[in-house]
Amino acid sequence: MNRFRQIFQCKIKSRTITKYRSNKTGLTISHIDAPGPIVKGYFALATEETSHDGLPHTLEHLIFLGSELYPYKGVLDLAANHCLAQGTNAWTSIDHTCYTVETAGSEGFLVLLPIYLDHIFFPTLSDQAFKTEVHHINGSGDDAGVVYCEMQARENNAESREEHAIQEAVFLNDCGYKWETGGMMENLRTSCSNEKVRAYHKKFYRPENLDVIICGNISIDKVFDAIIPIDDRVLKAGYDPYEKPWTKDIQLFDTYSSTNVLFPAKNEDNGRMSMTWKGPLLSDVKMVEAHSVLWNYMISTSAAPLVKSLIDTPEPLCSSISVSTEDYPVTLLTIIFKGVKPEKHSDIRKIAMETMQETYRGSLDMTRLKNQIKNNVANFSDKLENDPSEILAELVISDQLYGGENHSELTTFVKIFQYLDELRECEESFWKKILLYYIEEPNVTVNSIPSVKCMDDLEANEKARISKQKDALGPEGLANCGKVINECIEFNEKDIDKVEDIIDELPPIKVGDAISFHPIFTNMDSIEQGIITHEIESDFVRFYLTFDTDHLSQEDKALLGVYAKLFCDTALHHGGKEISHEEAIKLKEELLLSSSISVSGSEVESLTEVVLMFFKFSVDDLENCKEFTKNLICNKIFTEDRVTTAVNKMLSFISVGLRKAKKVLGAIDSVTKFSGSCKSSRNLFSELWLLESFKNDIPTVVKKLERLQSSLFYENKILLHIISSKSIIKDHFSARELADLTSHYNLSKANIPSRLPSYFKRQNRDPVQLLNVVSTDESSYLALSRSIDVQYDHQDYVSVALFAEYVGQLEGPLWKQIRGQGFAYSFDLYNGPASGFLVFYLGRATNVSKGYLAAKETIENILKENELEDTQIETAKGSLACGIIQKYETPSGSAITNIINIHRDLPLNHDMNVLAKISQIGETELLEACKKYFRPIFSCDANLVVCCPANKKEEIINDFAGLGLTINVIEDVKKYFQHLSNN
Q: Which CATH architecture has domain 4-246+481-505?
C-alpha cells in the first residue's frame, strides 16, 4: 500500500469500484468487486490516430508476439491457457485500445498479470512479426497478413463505408475521430511501417496512460504484489513528458449535409441510410439517458412512431430502424435505417422528419415512456447483480478517457438510479423539448446505395492491381517474397523449447476450491408436472418455456421464422377481448422486463429442434404475466397486414444476408448435412424460396400460421423452467401454484429430452465439395465437416474436445500454420456433439486453399511424429477447463447451463465430471483421437463448402484439384436448394 494509494471509490448499487494509483509511475489499477468463478482483466490505454495507417490496430496485434522478458511468440497466450484462461484478446476502438483476459479463479490471473503487462509495456515489435502479422506479399504475389485479412473483410462492406462517410462529415478539423484506426488496405500496403508502430508505442504505451481494470473476486493486495516488479521496471524505462490524448479541440459539423456512398452488391434491392446528430455532453448522464429513452420510444417497437410510418405500411420503405450512440465528450447519436428500398432515401428522410414533427405536435404516450424507464431501472439493476463486468468496465474506460482527475464520469454515473427516477416524473414538455432538438438541429445524412457496378469495378481494379504487382515483381521478385516471408515465419517460431521452458516454470494452476461458483439449486421434484425450478440469487423471475418441434412438417418449421417475427407484434385475445398489436406491445412494456423467442437454435446450438420462449418480470407482476404470456403463445391473431409486414421484413433481411459470405456459407453447409430439421429448414435460401412463393398469397400464410400456433400449444409437449431466488420460489410457487401453471401452459414432462440435430443428418448421401461465389465479400470462407457420433456422454468426448483445444489453441499448431502465415484471420476446429459433425472452419481468408492445406499437414505431421508437446497439452487443459467454467460465470448463466444439460439428457453435474476427466487425459488418448477422428476430416469423403470472391474462383478450384478434390461450382444457389429440398 506504500506504492499504491487509493485515489477514488464509488458504489453503484451493490457494486464497488475502487481506483488506485502508483506513487512512482502513475499507473492506475481499478477494481470492480463481483462474485463468481471468473476474474476479468481489461487493460485500457487511450490511443489517438492521425492517419489511415491503422497504428493503434497494428500495434494491438503485435503486442502479443513477444516481450522483453518473454521474447518469444506464443508465451503470452500459452501462459494464459496455463492459468485457466482461453487465451487473450483485445479490441481497438476509435479512442482507446483494450487488452482482455478471463481466468477461472484469481490464482491464475495473478500469475498471468505481470507477463501480460510486460508485453504491453515492453513488446519486442520485431520487423519479422510486423511482416507476418500486419502485411506482406507472399510468393504468389498476393497481399496477406493477419491484420490485412481482417481489414480486407471489412473495408468495403456497407457498414464500414457508411461509417467512414459519417466520420468525414461529422468531424471538420484534423482529429483522431475521423481516421480508420483499423487501417485502410492501401495504407497497410504502402505507408504503415514498423518504425511508425514503434514510435506510436513509445508515445501512448506508458504508465500514466494505462488503467488495469480487474473485475472479480480477487485480493487487491496480491494484485499490488504482482504489479510492483513491473512498476519498478517501468520507472527506469524513461519516457518523454506526458501529453494526455484527446485534449485537442474538436470541431463538429454545424450544418445539414447529405452524402451518397456506393457499396458493392450483387443486386440493388436493399441499401442503408443513417442520420447523425450531436447529442448531449457525455458528462451529463441524466440527459444522455433521457435522449436514449426518447429514441427508444420513437423506434423500439411496432408501436413506435417511426416504425409505424416507415415499416408498418402497405409499402414499407425500410426493414428495420436502430440507434447507435458514440460516447465521445459530445455524444453522437445515429439512427440507422436498414433494408432501404431503391430510390427511397429522400422519402425516408422526409417522412422521418415529418413523423417527428407530428409526434411533437401531438400527445406523447406518457404511460409507455414511463414503462420504458421502469424497465431500464429493473434491467440495469439486474445487470449489476448478474453480470456487472462489461457495463462497469466500459464505464471505467470512459472515465479514464474523459473523466479527468475528478473522475466526473464515475461520480455522475453513481446517481444513475436517481436520474432515472427523476426522468419518470418528467412532464410531457420535457420530452417534447428533446424531440424538438432533433427536429431543429442539423444532422449528417448518409445514403448507402448498393451498386453492382461498384462490385464489378472493385473486383476488376483488385484483379488489375494484383496482376500489376506480380508483373512488377517478376519471377525473381516473387521468389524473393516467398523466401522473405518464410524466413520471417521461421524467425517468429524460433526457440519453441524456450517457450515451453517458461510455461513449465510457471506455478501450477488447478481447478479447485479457489474457484467460487455461484450457488444454484435445480429442483426436479415437479418434473411430472412439466416444471423445473432453478434457485439462484436474483430479484426477478425468469420463465423459459421449451416447445417441441418433432411433430411439425418441414414447411411449418420454415414458417417458424415468420411466427417469431410476430411473437409480440400482432393482435391478441387478452382479458376477454381482442386487443391490437399496439396495445399488446404496450402491455408487454408494462409487464415484461425482457422477452424473446429463439427458433432453430439461434441462442443455443444444441437446442435447434425446440422453440425457446423467454420472459423476465418482477414477481409483483406474476399473475398478470401468466395470463399475458399465455396469450402471447397461443392467442395471437394473425392479421394480413401484420403478416405482410413480417414477410417483407424477412425478405429484406435475407437480401442483406445474401451479401455476407459467412451467412451464405452457413446456409449451404447446413442444407447439405441436414434434412427435415429446424436448422436446415430455416436458412437464407429455404426461407427465401418459401416467402417468395407465399408473398402474393398472404391469406394462405395466415391460415398456416394459425395452424402452427395451435400445433405448438395444443398438440405439443411444453416444459417450463422457472428461475428465481429461493425465497421467491418458496413464497410464490407452491405445489398448488405449480399445478395451476401446468394446466395454464399445457405442460408435459414428455418434452425431455428433445431430439438433437444429429437425428436429422442426411442418410446415405455422398459427401459434397462445393464452391459458391459471393462477389460482395473480398474474403473467402470455408466449412469442412465429417460425420462422427461422439456425443456428450461418449467415452471419447473429452479426448476429442481436448485434442481440438490442443491443436487450435492460441499459438498452438493450427494458429501458427494458418494465422501465423497470414492465410486467414480466423479458424476453428471443433466437435459438435449435438450436430454429430466434426467441423473445420476458415474465416476472412486471403488464401483459403493454403489455409486448408496447412491444417491438413498439421494433423498429418502430428501423426507422423506420433508425439505431442507436454506443455501444450497442459495449456490446452487449462483453456478447455476455462471454457467450461465460463458457462457458470453468472447466476442466470448457471441456470441456463443446467437447462441445456437437461435437454441434452445429461446429468446436472456433467460439466463437473468433464472437468475431472480433463486431468486424466494424456498423450496416448489424444493421439488416438487425432488418428480416429481428426485425420479423416481432411480426406476426400468429407463435406466441403467454400464461399469466395469471383477473382479467387479459378485459383481455389485449381488448388483443391491439386489436392485430389473436385470442387463443384454452385451456379444457381436457389435451384440447388430446391433440388436438395426435394431429396
A: 2-Layer Sandwich (3.30)
